[in-house]
Amino acid sequence: xxxxxxxxxxxxxxxxxxxxxxxxxxxxxxxxxxxxxxxxxxxxxxxxxxxxxxxxxxxxxxxxxxxxxxxxxxxxxxxxxxxxxxxxxxxxxxxxxxxxxxxxxxxxxxxxxxxxxxxxxxxxxxxxxxxxxxxxxxxxxxxxxxxxxxxxxxxxxxxxxxxxxxxxxxxxxxxxxxxxxxxxxxxxxxxxxxxxxxxxxxxxxxxxxxxxxxxxxxxxxxxxxxxxxxxxxxxxxxxxxxxxxxxxxxxxxxxxxxxxxxxxxxxxxxxxxxxxxxxxxxxxxxxxxxxxxxxxxxxxxxxxxxxxxxxxxxxxxxxxxxxxxxxxxxxxxxxxxxxxxxxxxxxxxxxxxxxxxxxxxxxxxxxxxxxxxxxxxxxxxxxxxxxxxxxxxxxxxxxxxxxxxxxxxxxxxxxxxxxxxxxxxxxxxxxxxxxxxxxxxxxxxxxxxxxxxxxxxxxxxxxxxxxxxxxxxxxxxxxxxxxxxxx
Length: 487
Description:
Blueprint: E1 3-8, H1 19-26, E2 30-33, H2 39-46, E3 52-53, H3 55-60, H4 64-79, E4 84-88, H5 97-109, E5 112-115, H6 121-129, E6 138-141, E7 154-157, H7 162-172, E8 181-186, E9 195-200, E10 214-218, H8 225-237, H9 243-246, H10 250-269, H11 273-296, H12 302-315, H13 318-321, H14 324-330, H15 336-343, H16 354-361, H17 370-383, H18 391-411, H19 414-434, H20 439-463, H21 473-486
Parallel strand pairs: 1-4, 1-5, 2-3, 2-4, 6-7
Antiparallel strand pairs: 7-10, 8-9, 8-10
Helix pairs in contact: 4-5, 8-11, 10-11, 16-17, 17-19, 18-19, 20-21
């Protein structure tokens, strides 16, 4: 059976070639290099080692995925005819997409292969930095820095020219101060040409020596990123931390979580992106605070929180995360509620179960604002079929409830008035729901509008040289009507 040996050429110095790799390249097999643009290749030439490279593909195509796919296809096709050696820079499984694609292709085509480790750029980079990666290191590709988590030490590869350095700089400056010290490693491990330059981040794309053997080391900063928030909360709750924070419990924090959530809504309503970022941070802090308190009391950890929501979202969106074949095989209903029913162990044909619906009411928190709670309860009842046929029917019920409230008022029965007013409010929520209006948000907007008009009334009174609180009802009513034309 034909065979592929996959070897690494090391980071650049011939002395870092393994004996196994050298022997394989010197055998009478066909040798392929992903690229001949590598310092070790000059050594191979001096040894008389013959090879073909795929550099010509980089000149023909701009899409790296297509290039890597074509390389894998070519190698597997060749390996069906003869034994071959495929050599890549560094270690074969360190940032080498062609090797990943080659292994996948070889497995699918039944072609035998063997991986031979080599010295990676990480080994020589850590040596140049005098840094032990056990202390924590995240290795990233300069091509994929979206959603960057900067909470640990970063080693960014493929900073191969000044344009790429500029892209990396701009991405890092979204998180770090432009003055932050970073280290460029150029020709790491190549004897006589290795350079290590510690510079401010803003100078990153001004270094002329940057080449295809350049990496960037970004040292960690305390209290930054996702992990930083946890570190801060842990510090606050430590024995010598903040006395106020140490006294808090899930119960005492409840009002703050609600308050922060409403401040997020205000920022959204005001279309204030800067404030929205701040308020979302406040909500996130509350979530972390609750999770760490729970972990300290042995209930659950933040990892369980994240694992639970990740798994739930994937499970409830099979049409996004599963292939069509997997969906058909599992006979998955692409329906949020249907999947939730399966999660709870309920047969999908028991939707008319009275107990199921009434039990679902208990899932609506008592801490919800009354309008929101009413709308949630009504939606659950409607899903069981208990609902008006048309929204106009609910309007008729609303008219009936208004009459009943008026009758209670005329009777001066306070207890009955309260009950009838509750029925009236519940009916208003029903009308809002059927017309697809969020009653909670609608009332909030109405309140904001009232405040704005009231402020306008005071302004109009001032313009007429009147003291607003001294105005009679007729004047106030006139000012109110006038304010409505302004707002």
